[in-house]
Queue: 2 jobs
Job 1
Amino acid sequence: MALSVATNIGALAASKAASSVNSSMETSMSRLSTGKRINSAADDSAGLAIASRLTSEARGLDMAARNAADAQAMINTIESSHSEIQNILQRMRELAVQGANDTNGTDDRTNIRTELTELHEEIDAIATQTKWAGQDLISSASTFKFQTGDEEDEQLTVATTAIAASSLSVGSTEVGSLTTSGSFTAFITTVNNAISSIASYRAEYGANSNRLDHVMANLATNSESVKASLGRIEDTDYAAETTELAKSQILQQAATSMLAQANASKQTILSLIQG
């Protein structure tokens, strides 16, 4: 092998190997310190694009789950108000049955009407005061759209019916006309109809709430699957990466040693020149 001073082939090769190993070590240390296999597009451009889409999907699913939970809380608020209105109607029915009995005189029926008046006013108060974040829920008919998925068409629509004592036919007009046994008897049927209407509304809201339970369970399952896929793409495999780092450290030491050996070999030429 010829001895050359102008071009140190051995040193160049060792330097190139050391540079390559250093780059590999930097990549391994970056992955180990961040926990991410992909820290830039240069690491895996295709993987980065897929991971970006999966991240968007996972975050959208998580937000949809929060939306569904909020929607369920709103619906439960509506249903709770209907439950209390139903309790009031049950008491009104009791009073109607009592008033239909002719053992009650005029003063007795007046006292019954007084309580019935308080009760129908409380129905109106509940309807007015039932709100969610400042929104009226049952004092007027409304349609609510809940975003329960991460795509624009994944919505649940819930319609509410306006509730008031007058709309249930148990308001001041009806109560004010209760003066005789016959009027109280007819009022029993009126209250029965009101109770039936409220029960029907409660059943619908209950079905909506139960549906949202399934929506949230499905969203949680989908989110878990997406996050698992995302992890397989971008997360660091610590076992493999620590092995790679140890390998790079050994190669770095070897390259450094070889570089020193290549540079030292030129001393042979100097010895020949000096004789």
Job 2
Amino acid sequence: MNTLIIILSLVAGVVGTGIGGILGVLLKSKGNKIMSRILSFAGGVMVGIVVFEMIPESIEKTQIIDYPYGVFVTLASVACGIIVIYGLNKLLDKIENVRETHRSLEELHHEIQVIQLTQEATNGATDKKSLLKAGIIMLLAIMFHNIPEGMAIGATGTAEVKMGVLVAILIAVHNVPEGMAISAPLASGGMKAWKTILLTAMAGAATVVGAIFGLAIGGIGDLAIGICMGVAGGAMLYVTFCEIVPQAILMDGGRIPAASMLIGVLSAMIFVYLF
């Protein structure tokens, strides 16, 4: 089963991001509205999976501790997942040493679009190095936050393979626009198409690292599985509300992203209770 989970994380990371890389090379700044709706829907499904499946599963696993302490363990695990991802983002800021070079994915995506529009308006006169730099920074940032996504696959897959498969599919969909965000500036900056797609796909490989970590923690008992699912759930909530939703709104403003996300939440709820 561990091999299956690792393969799933590899597919979710590399294939999802790689498809986004291909689309980014072909479409560049086009198709933002469609991708925004897909991204919002995937984010809604992720929230639904966390709320209706992962957290209840975590509470069930932690009930080996006397009630209500098991519930507190789950809540603490979710909070820990949120804090860990927030801390990792802050750590990345320090490593990059950069208010100028590292920003949130939404800000980077916006900056990339501005640079591309400026380049088009000036018939390509804009310095291509700026686009390459923005693309590389985006690549590093996405590699970094792909780790907790892999943890989510590993943790859920340890508890239940079906849910691991579903989470992997959702993360693969989520990775498509991220791949586009990487490849579009790299391609616009003059990088060859094959090299752009290869680097973009490699950014998703970090998902495997997270999956292995999730499997290692989740493989030592029900309590560990419950804690790991709580942590992964918290990480997914943070990524959804602090990365996915803002990026979707940036790509297509208005109420459509919110509606798409709501449909995603309802779809997840239906799936969980039917299957």
